[in-house]
Amino acid sequence: MTAIDLRKRPGKASMDEGRAAVMDAATVGSPALQRLRDTRADLSGMDLLEAAIKTDFPGRIAAVSSFGAESAVLLHLISQVDPTTPVIFLNTGKLFGETLRYRDRLQEKLGLTDIRAVGPHPVDLSAKDPNGGLWNANPDACCYIRKVLPLERALKGFDASITGRKRFQTNARSAMEAIEEEKVRGTGEPGSDQGTRFKINPLATWTQEDLEVYLDTHKLPRHPLVKDNYLSIGCMPCTERVPEGGSYRDGRWVGRDKDECGIHLPNNIDGDGI
């Protein structure tokens, strides 16, 4: 596998700064968030997960996983805390077959009992992507109907979600907090955009080296495409191998002014990173 350059992509500075500003604007600063940050300030990894799953949001929290290049780390941590924790898997209909088989392998190995595969609604596909080519014509719109809306529907009724995002992944995530609170995006239905939802990022401060050490220590299987230099793995049409010396996410949406699928950005932008 090629060495990973974690620097931001050339020419992406303005986009990253814009993404960061948008993400900041969407963040809510409630007293409840401040209390959580005060009491969990020293926690990360499994300790933060255990507090969130068992104490802060018992029965009201779900993990979101792409079953991508590094997903085994977060999923293994969750399995050690509570393997019955709901895990939402976005099956966009455009994933690599390797990803689907990897999901099955990890589910069996880790003993996760509540993986919920969700996908785009047939009505949305019929109206917006009847021929399946929206990913090429308008990738933001494609991400919206295949990722953003399905996830928002799946998270209805949950007060918090768990993500596997890390600060090193993009410049826009470099200042990400381990605990966030965001306005509920909504799905377009009346009243669906009310309230806020917490987001727990237990791996926020982990480095690529930390992830590799954890994978090796616990003998966790890698996504089969990693050995072919797919370093960040999303949908098949929008994911390519990273060339020698390329940066971590250079294989995503190549040639486009885009590096997020949208699920971690507010209402009017469609972006990535689970």
How would you classify the helix and strand content by structural class?
alpha/beta
Instruction: Give the distance, in angstroms, between the N- and C-terminal Cα atoms.
Output: 22 Å
The fourth-level CATH homologous superfamily is HUPs
Q: How many whole angstroms does the radius of gyration measure? A: 18 Å
DSSP E strands, number: 6
Could you tell me the CATH topology label.
Rossmann fold
Question: What percentage of residues falls in helices of 4 or more residues?
Answer: 25-40%
Which whole number gives the mean pLDDT? 86
Q: What string, H for helix and E for strand, traces the elements in order?
A: HHHEHEHEHHHEEEH
Number of domains: 1
Instruction: Identify the strand order in the major beta sheet.
Output: 3-2-1-4-6-5
Q: Which CATH top level class fits?
A: Alpha Beta
Q: Number of helix segments?
A: 9
Low-pLDDT regions: 1-25, 267-274
Q: Which architecture does the CATH hierarchy give at level 2?
A: 3-Layer(aba) Sandwich
Largest β-sheet summary:
6 strands, mixed
Query: How large a portion of the residues is in β-strands, by DSSP E?
Result: 5-15%
Structure explained in plain terms:
Helix content is 35%, strand content 9%. The protein is α/β, with parallel strands linked by helices and 274 residues long. A 6-stranded mixed beta sheet has the order 3-2-1-4-6-5, with helices on both faces. Strand 1 (61-65), helix 4 and strand 2 (87-90) form a beta-alpha-beta unit. Helix 3 (45-56) packs across helix 4 (71-81). It has one domain (13-238): HUPs (Rossmann fold, 3-Layer(aba) Sandwich), CATH 3.40.50.620. Residues 1-25 and 267-274 have low confidence and may be disordered. It has helices at 13-26, 31-39, 45-56, 71-81, 97-110, 122-128, 134-137, 139-154, 208-217, and strands at residues 61-65, 87-90, 115-118, 160-162, 179-183, 196-200. The radius of gyration is 18 Å and the shape is globular.
